[in-house]
Specification:
Mean pLDDT: 82
CATH architecture of the largest domain: Orthogonal Bundle
Number of domains: 2
CATH superfamily of the largest domain: lambda repressor-like DNA-binding domains
CATH class of the largest domain: Mainly Alpha
Structural class: mainly alpha
Number of helices: 7
Shape: elongated
Largest sheet: none
Low-confidence stretches: none
CATH topology of the largest domain: 434 Repressor (Amino-terminal Domain)
Order of helices and strands: HHHHHHH
Distance between the termini: 44 Å
Radius of gyration: 21 Å
Amino acid sequence: MKNILPILQENGLSVKDAAKALEIKPATLEAKLENEHLMRLDEACRLAELLDYTIDGLFFDRLYSPRDVQKGRIIRKIEEMDNTQLDLVWFFVKGLTDKKEATADDPDLTR
């Protein structure tokens, strides 16, 4: 099982917060995260949901979180696009990040 403590911290949660959500004592959760006690399936499901992970992605290193999977799908779609499609995506992203409308004469669009 991979180390879940950094994932808790990335989500702004402490062991105490997660234990409260799982309705168990913090010491019990710590013991389960350190493989001193078995985690029940319902606890694993609730913890994965709390952290926005699949159970596989949360507990096993070789698998990914739903966000990572979605990012991979987006990257593959972008790699398949032609230049016209990429320009349209760039206009959209530029508009979101700059909070202004991108224009065709934008120097950032040159390749």
